């Protein structure tokens, strides 16, 4: 019999992940702060819990995917929080992107309750979440990971065991630094070409035949050229991840100069935006000028 899965956080990522768990036949209980977002999954067969605690209590495997460290702390340690609901012997997986130190704190709290924890942030964006092609970066015990492979397989195509608790989050922060810097570099190069009077499409065309080609270019260049920044991966979350990477670097004494500059550019765009934007909108830093 398939384990009962609980899912907390039905944002851009969580909702399609939940739909894929249902499609794969897992009994699913969901909770979301804004209850209206549970309706689609309820129609597809999910039960809706009254609190994070209730969702955790009904699960063999609990999965959370919420915005940031304060959101995760709220659903775990806040009123009717999930931690107190977790059953001894159950497994808890967090797929939010948060600080590695928070992942280790959660692992400790879980161990005290006889619960196995994995930090398992994802890459692949909403597109990967919808297609069931996410990639999980996992920290924690390899044996626990083995147990939940069928659950991860319903939502993703690959998972990497990267080390002890926090290792998944560390690699995820490094991954997002690279994506943020790539899009920032693309936006700068497009600004240069455009100012010099060459059509920006031509740069993209040449890049597609060069070493600078990347899947990221396929997705983000059309958004920048069309100035269409409907959020697939929101800029506010990329800004958060760059901050988390810089915090980690500060703790370790590792200089990240390019990331520090990029974070200021993301910060400027985030500060001047009224609407929720994709992180490709970092190009607005130059487009406004
Ligand atoms: P979204 O679409 O912004 O969704 C965020 C989710 O987090 C959504 O379910 C929110 O509930 C929930 N949230 C945010 N703050 C809180 C608090 N304080 N309490 C409870 N729940 C909260 O993000 P994505 O799905 O794109 O990304 C999720 C994670 O994956 C994030 O860490 C990324 O960096 C990677 P709401 O619906 O607003 O009530």
In short:
The chain has 289 residues and is α/β, with parallel strands linked by helices. It contains 13 helices and nine strands.
Structure characterization notes:
With 289 residues, the protein is α/β, with parallel strands linked by helices. The protein has 2 domains: 5-164, 3-Layer(aba) Sandwich (Rossmann fold), CATH 3.40.50; 170-288, Orthogonal Bundle (N-(1-d-carboxylethyl)-l-norvaline Dehydrogenase, domain 2). It is 53% helix and 13% strand. The termini are far apart. Residues 9-14, 32-34, 37, 65-68, 71, 74-75, 96-97, 237 line the site of ligand NA7. The site of ligand NA7 has 20 residues, from α4.
Q: Please provide the count of β strands.
A: 9
Number of helices: 13
CATH architecture level-2 label of the largest domain: 3-Layer(aba) Sandwich
CATH topology of the largest domain: Rossmann fold
Low-confidence stretches: none
Overall mean pLDDT score?
97
* CATH H-level superfamily of the largest domain: NAD(P)-binding Rossmann-like Domain
Fill in the keyword field for this structure.
single chain, alpha/beta, Rossmann fold, N-(1-d-carboxylethyl)-l-norvaline Dehydrogenase, domain 2, 9 strands, globular, binds ligand NA7
């Amino acid at each position: 019999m398939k384990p009962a899965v609980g899912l907390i956080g039905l944002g851009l990522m969580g909702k399609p992940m939940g739909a894929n768990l249902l499609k794969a036949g897992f009994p699913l209980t969901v909770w979301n702060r804004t209850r209206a977002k549970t309706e689609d999954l309820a129609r597809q067969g999910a039960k809706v819990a009254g609190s994070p605690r209730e969702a955790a209590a009904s699960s063999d495997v609990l999965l959370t995917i919420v915005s940031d460290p304060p959101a995760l702390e709220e659903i775990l340690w806040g009123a009717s929080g999930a931690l107190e609901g977790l059953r001894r012997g159950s497994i808890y997986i967090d797929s939010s992107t948060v600080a590695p130190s928070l992942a280790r704190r959660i692992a400790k709290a879980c161990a005290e309750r006889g619960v196995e924890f994995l930090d398992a942030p994802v890459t692949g964006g909403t597109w990967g979440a919808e297609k069931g092609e996410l990639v999980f970066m996992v920290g924690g015990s390899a044996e626990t990971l083995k147990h939940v492979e069928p659950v991860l397989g319903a939502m993703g195509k690959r998972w990497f065991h990267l080390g002890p608790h926090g290792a998944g989050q560390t690699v995820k922060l490094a991954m997002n630094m690279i994506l943020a810097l790539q899009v920032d570099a693309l936006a700068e190069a497009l600004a240069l070409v455009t100012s010099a009077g060459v059509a920006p499409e031509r740069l993209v065309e040449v890049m597609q035949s060069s070493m600078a080609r990347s899947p990221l270019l396929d997705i983000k260049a059309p958004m920048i050229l069309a100035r269409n920044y409907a959020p697939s991966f929101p800029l506010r979350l990329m800004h958060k991840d760059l901050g988390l990477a810089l915090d980690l670097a500060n703790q370790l004494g590792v200089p990240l100069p390019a990331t520090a500059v990029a974070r200021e550019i993301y910060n400027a765009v985030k500060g001047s935006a009224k609407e929720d934007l994709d992180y490709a909108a970092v190009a607005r830093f130059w487009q406004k000028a």
